[in-house]
DNA sequence: AAAAAAATACCAAAATATAGGTATTTTATA
DNA sequence: TATAAAATACCTATATTTTGGTATTTTTTT
């Protein structure tokens, strides 16, 4: 059987190096390429016949999730496994929607990645940390932020005050205040400080 | 020559796995152990004769920097290389003070780690990303936070208000306000929102 | 023991955020 | 084309942070 052609994507070379060696020990898997951002993933996937991509979420230029979305539309036969540092609930929704095949945390052995790849190539989904990722899916959905809200959060985290945000987005300061209220409520946090910590950890910003 | 005995410390197993394989290809280096937090590093180092530790900064229980500090006092012959995700200016000072032997970013090839280890074992320091780490050392020193200030920042990021922080630390609310003022001034940020973003990115919290 | 750094405490005014609402318009989606 | 979701806007009151000061005590370093 032809070995599974795998593309590795992570902006940290040392992780790529590690992953490569881990997978190289396996006869029916071959690392076809290693790239460091989402755009390079697309370029590579359009050019070479790969079977599976291991995608880090946080990459410069084009992040893993956005990349996966494009990839699944353009080349739906390519399997996608997301490899991330932390469980990011904010993405569960997207992950399911896009049709990503597998998800696992970096806090995991190489063996587990191999298991995941095998499972996914066999047509099954692999969400080892399903619990961590979606232990309360409804909650996640309920808390889903709108694009505008994410814009607002980013502005807040940059230290802009409501009035400045309003100017920047050409809307009324009242609207900004409303957004802020909604955001706090959705995320179940009490104030902006908690919001920023949460958003940073969840890598919304 | 006896191979260099190396202890790897990172809270992400997949990185440990990767590092191990990368180093295993080298005859005069041997991975003596792999651990996932600072306390385990200390336990291991007290028990087994290791030559060098590769330390991640961000680990649960006992972080890399604190661990290095203890290690250098207790077992000064052990070389320490810090391996971190981002250049964290806030730590440059500490790194120099503690006498850490090397520093490199995870965004780096395995080859570079091997080079670093060789260099460090040869008695030299290895700060490949010295520039990233300390392109403005004076600034870093000027901006250095006191332990108390870091405590305050953590509390703020948890969403506590000044009064609550005061209660928690058994000090006057006025003192908390003073600390907050000093922190903002030291870090050159305009408000708490910027502070939290900065602190999170720099991984002060 | 002296000097420097860190932690402590207080005052007062101005600026901002938060909490409680209601309500209309625009944009997606079924 | 209905319907739902998102974005918009406003009001009032209270809570909290931020700014600009001064100053003493404790701890650390030289």
Q: Assign the CATH superfamily of the largest domain in chain A.
A: Response regulator
Using the 3D structure, state the CATH architecture of the largest domain in chain A.
Answer: 3-Layer(aba) Sandwich
How would you describe the shape of chain A? elongated
Q: Give the fraction of residues assigned to helices of chain A.
A: 40-55%
Portion of residues in beta strands of chain A equals 5-15%
Profile the largest sheet of chain A.
6 strands, parallel
Strands in their spatial order, largest beta sheet of chain A:
2-1-3-4-5-6
Determine the most extensive contact between two protein chains: A-B, 36 and 35 residues
Oligomer: homodimer
In CATH terms, what is the fold-level topology of the largest domain in chain A?
A: Rossmann fold
Order of helices and strands of chain A, N to C? EHEHEHEHEHEHHHHHH
- Total helix count of chain A? 11
CATH C-level class of the largest domain in chain A? Alpha Beta
Instruction: Indicate the mean pLDDT of chain A.
Output: 79
Q: What's the total count of β strands of chain A?
A: 6
Count of folded domains of chain A: 2
Description:
The structure is a homodimer of 205-residue chains. In chain A, helix 9 (162-169) packs across helix 10 (173-187). The radius of gyration of chain A is 19 Å and the shape is elongated. In chain A, 54% of the residues lie in helices and 15% in strands. The longest helix of chain A is centred in the last third of the chain and has 15 residues, at 173-187. In chain A, strands 2-1-3-4-5-6 form a 6-stranded parallel β-sheet, with helices on both faces. The first copy, chain A, has 11 helices and 6 strands. Chain A has helices spanning 13-24, 38-47, 64-74, 89-98, 110-121, 130-134, 137-142, 147-157, 162-169, 173-187, 192-201, and strands at residues 4-9, 29-35, 52-56, 79-84, 102-105, 126-127. The N and C termini of chain A lie far apart (43 Å). The first copy, chain A, folds into 2 domains: 4-138, Response regulator (Rossmann fold, 3-Layer(aba) Sandwich), CATH 3.40.50; 145-201, Orthogonal Bundle (Arc Repressor Mutant, subunit A), CATH 1.10.10. Chain A has 205 residues and is of the alpha/beta class. The A-B interface holds A 11-15, 17-19, 21-22, 25, 83, 85, 105-110, 113, 156-159, 161, 189-194, 196-197, 200-201, 205 and B 11-15, 17-19, 21-22, 25, 83, 85, 106-110, 113, 156-159, 161, 189-194, 196-197, 200-201, 205. Chain B binds a DNA duplex (30 and 30 nucleotides) through helix 8 and helix 10.
